[in-house]
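Continuing the batch. This is chain 6 of the set; chains 1 through 5 are on the previous pages. Same settings as before, nothing changed between runs. Recording input and output for traceability.
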Amino acid sequence: MHIDLNAFFATAEIIRDPSLANKPLVVGGTGRRGIVSTASYEARAFGVHSAMPTYMAERLCPGLIILPPDFKLYSRLSHEFFNFVRHYSPLIEVASIDECYVDMTEAMKNVKDPMVYLTNLQNDLYQKTLLKCSIGLGPTKFLAKMASDFKKPMGITIFRRRDLANTLWTLPIASMYGVGKKTFPRLEKLGIKTIGDLVKSENPEVKALLGKFYFTLIEWATGFGSDEVHPEPDDPKSIGNSRTLMSDTDDYDEIRSMIIYLCQEVSERAHEEKMLGTTIQLVIKNADFTTMNRSVTVE
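Output for chain 6:
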């Protein structure tokens, strides 16, 4: 199962101040360099989306409410969310502050109607925390992720291998997890409009464009690939936190604020675990999936 909170930062602000409900609002920075981090669904109706400069969002949506991020609030609600999910299954892999993969093999072993079960889970989360979520279920992590993205907000989607030709394969190639903003227009020029087109294509130019990643994408799209959830060990040798930004960015202030936030998260978790470390590591992954590691050891 992949479970993803809907418009998390915006929802958190509404939980704190219910008068914001049903209003167009964004969480993000202000000024010429301000970036939208999360937009409420009312703001999205005007074309506002994450990673958009806030001055552009204001042009699109008159009366837009802009709120600064409050990571302490989001962190507290995030912990509530993950603790709630652990009541259903302890095998949980945190993907970011508002989403996780969960191995539901044991939890749903005797469930006769998965949709009813997941609807009850979704409603239970809302009643206890006021957080809204979308849920995806599938035999692999990729399919579960794609399924949770399929319907938002408050969607529940199940992708089964036998149905992929009529479900996953009909989706536009731009929506495929792993296919970036720079890659999908080039695929479309080669006639790859949908995920199904990619699966069926025998065009050598497509393979040349994607390289080795082509075989990974085909494996994912045909219902195979990783199904292993990696929960944190009880006695971790390291404590880390990561976040995938909502879109590629080279905005210094946005990246700096995210690094500060991740530092605070790691520090708070180390404090809770009563653990100390001597090596600090920073890992950055670029849009082309190249990774840079930097570390420093302190006394």
